[in-house]
Amino acid sequence: MAVPPMASAEPAPSPVVIAVRVDDGTATAPIAGAHVTVREASGEQVLVASGVSGLDGSLELEVDGTADFYFAEAEWPGDRGDLEDPGVGRSEFVVSRGEPVDVVLWGSFAVVDGTVAATVDGEPLLDLSGAAIEVASGGVTVQRVPLAADGSFVSAALPTSWETATSVSLVPPAGLVLAPGQPAENAPFALPFGGSSPSVVAIERSFALMSDGAAPEPVPTESPVPTESPVPTESPVPTESPVPTPVDPSEPLVPSDPVEPTPGPHLPSAAQVVIGDGASLGELLAGGSASTVQTMLTALFQRADDSSPALAGWVVDAQGATVGVGLIDEPNALSRPYLAFFKRPPEAAGPPLWILDIRALLDAAALAGASDSELQALIAALNAGSAQLGLEVDAEAALAAYVGSPTPDALSEAARALLAAGVDHSLLAGEPEDRLAEAREQAAALAAQMEASRASQQGAMGEVEELLSDEDRAAAVLSAHEQLLAAARSRVIGTVRSEPVPLGTVHWDRGTGTGAFDLARVPAGEHHLILEFAELGAIAIQPVSIGAASTAELPRTGATASPALALGLSLLVLGGAALLAPRLARRAHARAAA
User: Fold this and answer.
1) What angle do CA 145, 150, 151 make, to 5 degrees?
2) Can you give 195-212 as a three-state secondary structure string?
3) Which residues have C-beta within 8 Å of that of residue 440, sequence separation ≥ 6?
4) With 23 labelled, which of 38, 118, 393, 423 sits at a CA distance of 20 to 30 A?
5) Who's near 232: CB < 8 A, 6+ residues apart?
6) In whole angstroms, what separates CA 116 from the centre of its chain?
7) 51 exposed, middle or buried (CB, 10 Å; 0-12, 13-18, 19+)?
8) What backbone torsions phi and psi does residue 221 show, to the nearest 5 degrees?
9) Domains of the chain
10) DSSP string of 112-149, one letter each residue
11) Are the C-beta atoms of 414 and 436 separated by less than 8 Å?
């Protein structure tokens, strides 16, 4: 018997609309340029469709599969900036329902509000209809935005970022191309968070265009007629060397006017806590030995005077890059908003200390006052210097690896790392027998460059420290940080020190806490309560008194710092002219949908 045709037919592909957006908890917007994949939700999670979200954040995919359940993932391919790790959103769905699938990336976002001017053969182009701007993030093109006739455009949402990792390029109208020489630099730029989403970043760009035709062939000029060689003149007769004037040793020498020394950069005077490579400050505070944590807290709390907000110290790494800054807040500033975290609230025993990574400090400074451009520029320079120093450290390591084992792969990595650090070289172009010698020369030059970068970091730290020594400025930054916390979400990992007593993890959700810390296992006495906001680059340290007074030797507010010690957990407290680091490690986690 013949089989009915429908019995052997393959299931028809089903169209599914995926809508990708970015959400910071208070505002949301479609995000263009996200890479979207659809997989079966069970078994081997077979990939059935993929694509890229458009300017409205959506795309339609044909799902050609036999499963009942699928999941869509959206990943941001460019600079992730302030997106919560791992920068991937995920939603499960059933094809048969036919509903759009909403996929969310969490983090603050910005838009680029731009204006483009162009000339054609030196004459202004008055109508830019048909042209477009391509927006790249981290070197990846993520959007193509049409220009209005007057050259204006507004991009779709992009993750905010303090890195100069966003760039634009012009796609000329039909019949025109970019001219070889451009009138102005088209530099990459940052998308800093301005306190609320969307942050608006205004740019202006100018381009020179030319007709899309073949360039005319050059007309050869006649060869010049050689002129006669000039008659050489006689060499001049050398003059006699002057006879030195004799000096009477009995007469005193009259010194010339002294040269005024050039003033050097401001150097930081606050304590610097140096953490080793790969170390997390939160983990050191929670799991370090009593002597390690006591040394660090003593150094950070020694500037507190129980009354005024102030910069208390720096957190830096062993290579010389800034990790974060410690800021003393007003007394009881921390205990009031976080009482909901405790079944038995502790009593504050002094002003709290906030340790903010540089990104969190930048966000707070931006929100504290748009007019305070000096502080923002200094913090941005500190951040850029840290990033540059990190690239130089990577290049130094790559050169050392090549010198130690001169393989083709090691050579390629050394060349790449040098270029990333902005170092011109000819490693790949030189003769093979000369490459090791050049690598050693580059290593020596790079070492000097890194010393200059470290000195620059110290100078920037000193200037930031000088500005934040102003009580009103420090108070404004701390107040702005509290506002940002009120709009953020994060895990909060609690620990009580002197001897470590882990309290577990609760969740902070835009000003309210979910879960509670139990202090029942903490002995009576004076302690330091440590709350690490794991995804926000912030750690709060509050001196507390629990029960009867303790005689334990805990670091007290205003105490004198103990001598610097090399500690077992790669932590070192240095004085005002020490080394510096890249980041207060923000801990990654898989975010559940809100």
Assistant:
1) 35
2) CCCCEEEEEEEEEEEEEC
3) 403
4) 38
5) none
6) 28
7) middle
8) -90, 155
9) 14-106 (2.60.40.1120), 109-211 (2.60.40.10), 271-370+464-574 (no CATH)
10) EEEEEEEEETTEE----TT-EEEEEETTEEEEEEEPPT
11) no
User: Is residue 569 a contact partner of residue 580, using CB atoms and an 8 Å limit?
Assistant: no
Q: How buried is residue 167: exposed, middle or buried, by Cβ count under 10 Å (0-12/13-18/19+)?
A: middle
Residue with tokens 């907000």: 309
For each of the chain's 594 residues, which pLDDT tens digit applies? Answer: 444 444 444 556 778 899 999 998 888 999 999 999 988 887 778 888 888 999 889 988 888 767 778 888 999 988 888 998 777 888 888 876 667 899 999 999 999 999 999 999 888 898 999 999 999 998 888 999 999 999 999 999 999 998 889 999 999 999 899 988 888 888 899 999 888 889 999 999 999 999 876 444 444 444 444 444 444 445 444 444 444 334 333 333 333 333 333 334 578 889 888 886 656 788 888 888 888 888 888 888 887 665 678 899 999 888 878 989 999 988 766 655 566 687 777 888 888 999 999 888 988 888 886 556 788 888 888 888 888 998 999 999 999 999 999 888 888 898 888 888 888 877 777 778 888 888 998 899 899 999 999 999 999 999 999 999 888 899 999 989 988 888 888 889 999 998 789 999 988 887 777 888 888 888 888 999 999 998 888 999 988 888 753 333 333 333 333 322 222 233 344 433 332 333 455 544 333 333
User: Half-sphere exposure of residue 126, counting CA atoms within 13 Å on the CB side?
Assistant: 0
SS3 365: helix
Token pair recorded at residue 463: 């200037």
Q: What is the DSSP string of 246-313?
A: P--TTSPP-PPPPPPPPP------SEEEEE-TT--HHHHHHHS-HHHHHHHHHHHHTT--SSS-EEEE
